[in-house]
Structure formats: structure tokens, C-alpha cells
Amino acid sequence: MNWQSWSQFLEMGGYGLYVWGSYAVTLVVLVAEMAELVMRRRGLFERLAKFYAARRRNDETEA
Amino acid sequence: MTKSRRFSWFVFSSPQTFYPLAGTLQPWFAVLAALLCAAGLYISFFVAPTDAQQGESYRIIFIHVPAAWMSMFLYLVMGFWSGVGLVLNTRLSSMVATALAPTGALFTFIALWTGALWGKPTWGTWWVWDARLTSELILLFLYIGFMALQAAIDDPRRADKAGAVLALVGVINIPIIYFSVQWWSTLHQGASVSMKSAPTMAATMLVGMLVMALGFWMYSIAAVLARVRCVILERERHTEWVMEEVGLHA
User: What ipTM goes with this model?
Assistant: First the structure.
């Protein structure tokens, strides 16, 4: 085991800012990408549903 | 004459058949990614010992090197599918290339960011215009250029072709990044892991790095599968099956 306490773990031998700055930003980037993908899919289904509804209305008025 | 009923892998080159397959596979890769990253993080912080020279700052290696590997590997995969799309005119190949670019760009950014945060305590500077760092920055611009070019062209098939040419020309940058530390004298250290010789690092450090790399790899597959499903729906929206798919989920 490398660490005796939480504060030691967070300090990272004096390199806490650099180590946690690296890991935190990596985490944020990956979580943001996952969130973007979920939102993109949701938004896409809404947009496409509207697109098809509009097309159907269009077809009906033309008929 | 009997019709051949043999299974062909080309069946999956159709967006319609690939879409559900990607949907089935995607959660498995996501779970694998989560497990591998959890194991990798545990090894990185609790198993791997403190480095004799760099102290704890070296622990950035467990994300820096895997992210840098992924940034180059994903570009090669993107170039490959771009080339296939260009030569065979298969739409799905181009869609996969399109879906790879954002994830590749993010890993390039992570490699640069963690590199800066590692460079400051070890070299005394966030950034230096040496061959390795500069060529990796060019890689980021190639990814961004690919995405911007595709976004700027309305006709998707023309966007595919233009993007593919850019992606293929940019492939030349990958060996430049990889061998830059040998070809030029750089501040960046040489490879710690190579095919030719034994790794120059402690076994647990190496294992941690490889497990994280596998985790990033699985994550990339999961993210790209999720994105290519969106791209397929967007671009195939005029087909009957997408209409049904959207109706099913509405």
C-alpha cells in the first residue's frame, strides 16, 4: 500500500495538482462525451419524429 | 444452379443490418471499459510503487500513454475506413470514419493536456515546440480539420470523399509522431514499451498502463458504436426502416 492516509493520497507526494488535474480533466472529457452521445440520440429521435409527422401531414394535404 | 446460402460478412456493410448489431454490442464494450478502467485505476494508484526518480508525478503515465496510443490508433482506424469508403464506395465505412473523429480528437486532447501537466513538474515547462509535442498537436488539428470539412459540405457523399482524402493524407503524421523521439532530439523521452526490447519499467507499472490502454480501447469502441448509430439514423432518415425504428421509440 502506497498511502497511509487520505490526505497523503490527495497530496500525491506534492504533485497532487498535476496528477489530479490530469485525472479530473480526463474524467470530465469522457463523461462529457458520453452525455453528449445520450443527448444526441434523444434529440435525434425527437427531431426525426417531428420530421416524419410533418411529412405525413404534407402527404395528406397533397392527396 | 442453387443459390449460395453461405454467410457473408458483407451483410454487415449495410447500415440497416449494422445498426442493430452495433446496438447489441455497444453495452458490452461499455461494461468492459468500465471494468478495465476500474482495475487499471486500482493498479495505477494502489499497486504500482512510487517511481524512484519522479516520485508520484509519474502516475500521470497511466492515462497519458494510453490516451496517446489511442489518439494515434484511432486515426489509423479512421484513415483505414476512410480509404475503404473511398475505394469501395461503401457508405457505412465512411460513417464509421465520421464517428471515429470526435473520440480520436478527445484522446489527442487528453494526451496533450496530461502531457502538459506532466511536463511542468518534470521538465519545468508546460509546453515546448519539440517534434513529439508539435506532431501530436498537428494530429489534433487533423481531427478538427476532418470534422470541420465534413460539417461544411452539405452533400454527405461528397463530405465523405473530401474527409477521406484529408484523413488519408494525414496518416503520414502518425509515423512522424511515433518515431519523432528517435528521428529528432526531443525533450520527450523515448518509448518505454517497444516490440523490440523488454520494457524499461516495473512490471506493475507496465500492467497498469496496459490495462488502462485496454479500458480506453473498449471505451472508444463503445463511444464510436453509439455515435455511428446516430450517424446512421441521421443519414438514412429517408428509409422505411429508420422511420419504423423512430416510431418504435417515440
Answer: 0.91
* Residue in chain A lying closest to B247 (CA): A49
Q: B55 pairs with which residues across the strands?
A: B51
For an interface test with B, which of A22, A27, A30, A51 has the most B Cβ atoms less than 10 Å from its Cβ? A22
Cβ-count burial B172-197 (b if 16+ within 10 Å, e if not): ebbebbbebbeeeebebeeeeeeeee
The CATH number of the domain holding residue B170 is: 1.20.120
**Is residue B74 domain-resident?**
yes
pLDDT in tens, B65-108: 999 999 999 999 999 999 999 999 999 999 999 999 999 999 99
Quick check: B247 and A52 CB within 8 A?
A: yes
Q: Inter-chain contact A23–B102, Cβ cutoff 8 Å? A: no
- Report the number of distinct structural domains present in chain B: 1
Name the pTM for this structure. Answer: 0.92
Residues B46, A19: C-beta atoms closer than 8 Å = no
Q: Which residue, among A17, A60, A49, A23, has the nearest Cα to B246 in the 3D structure? A: A49
Domain that holds residue B100: 26-243
